[in-house]
Amino acid sequence: MSSNTAAATADESPTTTTAPWTADAVMDIFGIQRKPAEAIINHIDDWSEFESAIESDSDWTLLDGVGPATADSLDETAGELNAFPPARGDDQDEAQEAEDGEVSDDDEDEASDEPDVAPEDSDMNDDSDGDEEDDEMGEAEAEPDTDADPDEAAEDADDDATTDDGDGAESDRLPTFEKKLSSFAAVVEAGTLKDIVGQYTPIADEARIHLSEGGVRILLVDPANVVMRDGDYPASLFESYNTSEGRIGIDLNDLRDVIKMAGSDDLIHLELEAGKLNISMDGLEYTLALIDPESIREEPELPDLELPARFTIKQRELKRANKAADMVSDHVAVEARNPADGERAIIVKADGDTDDVKLTWTEDKDDIEDVMLPAAGEAFDSLFSLDYMKDIVRNISADTDIEVELGDEFPIWLRHNIDDDGETVVNTMLAPRIQSN
Fold first, then answer.
1. Alpha carbon 372 to chain centroid, angstroms
2. Are residues 424 and 330 in the same domain?
3. Which residue, among 187, 109, 136, has the nearest Cα to 411 in the 3D structure?
4. Fewest CB within a 10 Å sphere: which of 27, 44, 214, 282?
5. 270: domain range?
């Protein structure tokens, strides 16, 4: 935004004690997350004084103590804050297109077609514990094409979501979208919705939810970039289901807390209206504010891995292994062993400071099925964070079959369904702890 635009916007903004900015606008201008942005909005009493401080790039003491948005951190970026965000933040694209504070009807149409750009989360991949062993997940970042037409870019993004990955696997998945959802109404059993939401709350607080005629797709990665979950939930899971194509952003914890109030057999009615999700059940009505999908971290693409070992096991056995490992360590190793003169096995083990624990599953037992191991004489293992391993199996029912794939210091893949028809495919990838030795 040019200095002329800033002046025009400042002149048009009335002096008021009511917050003239939205959380999205504060997130964009300061490059911070939603919770501190909301804290800023709630913290400022005199917005005219605050805007004057930004205009002069000084006096950030107004924000001292508001989460990570402290006076010192804002001083570091004060030189970049030369303009106000839009007065209300609802139509930021139009305000950025305007050079003199006024936008023509044609310009408004062009601005509304521009794809939003989410602020970058610069601290997502920071290593907080400084340990020699790090959780690592490769993530390729595409270079932006500055010459591309915005409309074509948006269409390409939607097309890419359903492109076959070479072996036909991706063509069977539900699509993802760049555009926002315009209409949605559905009825679903509370138990089913609780199962769906419960798959993701241990991993992240917020999610983009992609809706199409075929059903619902949720793909997210945790803030530390260690675990990724991608689930397809077909329209057949719902009692009734009508939607346009697009995506919404939602606070998963808020949604979970609302639907907790319903019994498992109750029917929950969901309807999108005026940018909010209306939820009704057994006489209770709740309106849940949605989140701008652009403000939620972009989902990375799932890598195409061919791992050399595979087996299928009940959730209760994985939970039992996690519980045993938790007695001695905060990490767990999963090993696939195919000795030339011994018993083929899958082994889960944990080494503590003084105690060790090991759980062995062999092919001749009922614990595991569909076992594929490396070539004779080979063995390999990978080390994983036990907290993450517990999180990703926690809300899966005990009798659910989980297909597991692993390699040597590779991510571990877990795949399961939440229905008997096998249509609700949920894929989870957990990055390994790379061992220094």
1. 31
2. yes
3. 136
4. 282
5. 167-295
Report percent pLDDT > 70 for the chain: 61
Distance of CA 219 to the CA centre of its chain: 6
The three-state secondary structure class of 368 is strand
- What does DSSP assign to residue 202? T
pTM of the model: 0.60
Q: What is the tally of structural domains in the chain?
A: 3
**Closest alpha carbon to 432 in 305, 259, 258:** 305
Q: Which of 30-44, 53-67, 149-163 has the highest mean pLDDT?
A: 30-44
SS3 347: strand
Please identify, among 246, 273, 295, the residue that sits at the C-terminal boundary of a domain: 295
- Round to whole Å and give the CA distance between 309 and 344: 12
- Domain contains 264: yes
Lowest-confidence pick of 112-121, 184-193, 328-337: 112-121
- Alpha-carbon gap, residue 400 to 117, rounded angstroms: 39
Inter-CA distances, 202 with 170, 191, 321, Å: 26, 18, 19
CA 6 to the chain's CA centroid: 34
Amino acid, res. 65: G
One-letter amino acid for residue 327 of the chain = M
CA dihedral 203→208→212→214, nearest 10 degrees, is 0
What pLDDT shows up at residue 437?
53
Q: How far is CA 95 from CA 18, 225, 275, 361, 363, in A?
A: 20, 34, 21, 62, 64
Q: Kindly state whether residue 126 falls inside one of the protein's structural domains.
A: no
Q: Which of 261, 295, 329 is the last residue of a domain?
A: 295
Closest CA to 299 of 231, 390, 383: 231
In three-state secondary structure terms, 391 is helix
Whether residue 383 sits in one domain with residue 314: yes
How many CB atoms sit inside 10 A of residue 436's CB? 8
Is the pLDDT confidence value at 24 over 60? yes
Report the Cα 337 to chain-centroid distance in Å: 34
Q: Residue 215 and residue 236: Cα distance in Å, rounded?
A: 8
Please state whether 31 falls in left (phi above 0), alpha (psi between -120 and 50) or beta. left
pLDDT for the residue 172: 73
Whether 144 maps to a domain, the answer reads: no
Q: What is the CA radius of gyration of the chain?
A: 25
Q: Check: CB of residue 323 under 8 Å from CB of residue 335.
A: no
- Smallest CA-to-CA distance from 212 within 173, 249, 250 is with 173
Kind of pairing between the strands at 240-243 and 309-314: unpaired
* Helices 34-43, 23-30: crossing angle, 10 deg rounding: 110
Tokens of 290: 């949605």
